[in-house]
Amino acid sequence: MTLRAYRFLVHSVLLLALVFSTRDVWAVGMETVKVAPDQNGFILDPSGNRFVPWGHNYASVDIMERLANEPERVEREFAEMKAAGTTVARIHPEMPLILTGPEQVNPQSIDQLKRLLKIAEDSGIHLKITGLACYQIKDRMAWYDAMDEQDRWKTQAFFWETISRTCAESPAVFAYDLVNEPGAVGKREEGWYLGRMGEVEFCQRLSLDPGTRNGDEIFREWTTRMVSAIRKHDQTHLITMGMLPFPGAYKAAAEQLDFVSPHLYPKTGKVDDEIKLLKQFDWGKPIVIGETFPLSCGVDDERDFLLQSRGLAHGWIGHWPDESPAKLAELKETGKATIHNAIWLSWVDLFKELGPQMTGETSR
Q1: Other CB atoms within 10 Å distance of the CB of residue 166
Q2: DSSP H stretches of helix in the chain
Q3: What distance in Å separates the CA atoms of residue 97 and residue 139, rounded to the nearest whole number?
Q4: Strand partners, 33
Q5: pTM for this structure?
Q6: Of 60, 128, 124, 182, which Cα lies nearest the Cα of 290?
Q7: Using CA atoms, how far apart are residues 107 and 10, in angstroms rounded to an integer?
Q8: CA pair distance 161, 234, nearest whole angstrom
């Protein structure tokens, strides 16, 4: 090798080192999730291996606070979820902590979101990022709720531009979940929010002034705006929406989504009814059940529902407990577990039990 060639080689190596030291470098080996070419589930890119979303809603009302105050807890719990067989965690970064005003971003929260992406990459868990969460009533933004529909939609689009710009290069993102369980239309006296449970409300309406538009038209218009906002910065990751168990309300929105994500909680003795309901979400796209849990039934009915839903759904997401599984097991062994503790432990045990069958590691 000539001296000139040697210098060129050294210069090239140093240049590459500089490039990779001054940009975000995502974990080697984690692959991006795509819809399978036949629309029958998901694959990993570039390997083409089958991917099955099997996981939990995680820290539904305080993920950003945990990242800020207890990052080591988040790391530990992601490791625990992975050990239990989790492939996807659905997270809900609260909008009041992301935005400080119209088109004003909280840089600390963006740094926390980047940290969460790194935690997900290190653990090998993909993220389903749910948007526009204003669940905690005490934290609501008065300036946001005072907006009319079009300004509110503009702010919601800005939120999604911010999130997608931050996350676009990370393979840890499974999907952007536009909003949790929206309603198309409400009356102005009802306000923007619904679905109250204690001091939180998990749902919101898209319009209080529909005019001559019906629900389908509002969903089409709104979904177009949000998808366009994401696609300005991210052409790769998938887009969906968390849906209440009312398929007729969401079919129009699903036209622009990559997959469908209904929330289904079977009731005691009525598993067949829930399977019939699930079939109504078959619109020629993959289905990921974005929420399920033995909330209104026992663990046996939940098991039956999950097993019977195979062949219809292509992914399932339950809920991860705030107490660690080890702590719940300890409470059970010492006879100190409450009914609440027992329900959570029954879900974690069921999740571990069924994981190999649901993800295709075994065929039984």
Answers
A1: 22
A2: 3-21, 63-69, 71-83, 95-98, 107-123, 142-145, 149-167, 215-231, 247-254, 271-279, 299-309, 325-333, 339-358
A3: 9
A4: 44
A5: 0.91
A6: 128
A7: 37
A8: 9
CA atoms of 213 and 206, how far apart (whole Å)? 12
**Phi, psi of 312, rounded to the nearest 5 degrees:** -105, -50
Q: What pLDDT digit, counting tens, does each position of 230-288 carry? A: 999 999 999 999 999 999 999 999 999 999 999 999 999 999 999 999 999 999 999 99
Helix and strand numbers (H, E) in the chain are 13, 16
Instruction: Put the strands of the sheet holding 200-207 in their side by side order.
Output: 183-185, 200-207, 193-197
Residues in the chain: 364
Cis ω on the peptide bond leading into residue 46 (within 30° of 0)?
Answer: yes
- DSSP helix/strand/coil, 306: helix
Give residue limits of the domains in the chain: 52-358
Q: Do the beta carbons of residue 129 and residue 175 sit within 8 Å?
A: yes
For residues 94 and 136, is the Cβ–Cβ distance under 8 A?
yes
Q: What type of residue is 204?
A: Q
Q: Which CATH number fits domain 52-358: 3.40.630.10, 3.30.70.2730, 1.10.443.10, 3.20.20.80?
A: 3.20.20.80
> SS3 of 89, please?
strand
Rounded to the nearest angstrom, the gap between the alpha carbon of residue 280 and the centroid of all alpha carbons in its chain is 22
Query: How do residues 68-85 score in pLDDT, each as one tens digit?
Result: 999 999 999 999 999 999
- Least Cα distance to 287 among 53, 32, 87 occurs for 53
**Would you give the DSSP letter of residue 26?**
P
